[in-house]
UniProtKB/TrEMBL annotation:
Compartment(s) of residence: Cytoplasm
Function per UniProt: Transfers the 4'-phosphopantetheine moiety from coenzyme A to a Ser of acyl-carrier-protein.
Name by which UniProt lists this protein: Holo-[acyl-carrier-protein] synthase
Entry superkingdom: Bacteria
Binding of Mg(2+), residues: D8, E58
EC number: 2.7.8.7
InterPro entries: 4-PPantetheinyl_Trfase_dom, 4-PPantetheinyl_Trfase_dom_sf, ACPS, Ppantetheine-prot_Trfase_dom
Organism: Streptococcus oriscaviae
Example of a GO MF term: holo-[acyl-carrier-protein] synthase activity
Catalytic function, reaction form: apo-[ACP] + CoA = holo-[ACP] + adenosine 3',5'-bisphosphate + H(+)
Family, per entry: Belongs to the P-Pant transferase superfamily. AcpS family.
All copies of domain 4'-phosphopantetheinyl transferase, residue ranges: 6-100
Main location: cytoplasm
Any Pfam family the entry gives: ACPS
């Protein structure tokens, strides 16, 4: 059974502006392991990666019903599995987490669905 759903849509230009205004923006949003991957990217791909992680974490916080504030960006981590699928790891909820991140033009969107881990409930 679905227990939460969150969606976030973000403009790349807003993330780029935040990056220019706040030198520690990347450190606020990305965990150290996410930052390792970020540092290997260049140009627009680096911006898309950062915006995708921002959007995924916002969508997760919305699915939980807390929003960002009670939950910090550092409390969540989005890494790709061996097939390149983004996976969100966290410890705040005992649920299956379904994550999708999409990029189109100047936008990135993330959707998170939380599903009961134990279907017998």
């Amino acid at each position: 059974m679905i227990i939460g759903h969150g969606i976030d849509l973000q403009e790349l230009t807003a993330i780029q502006e935040a990056l220019q205004k706040h030198p520690r923006f990347v450190d606020k949003v990305l965990t150290s392991r996410e930052k390792e991957h970020f540092d290997k990217l260049k140009g627009k791909r680096q911006l898309e990666y950062l915006a995708g992680r921002w959007s995924a974490k916002e969508a997760f916080a919305k699915a939980l019903g807390t929003g960002i504030g009670k939950l910090r960006f550092q409390d969540m981590e989005v890494l790709n599995d061996a097939k390149g699928v983004p996976r969100l790891s966290q410890s705040q909820v005992a649920a299956k987490v379904w994550l999708s991140i999409s990029h189109s033009g100047n936008f990135v969107q993330a959707s998170v669905i939380l599903e009961e881990a134990d279907e017998s409930k």
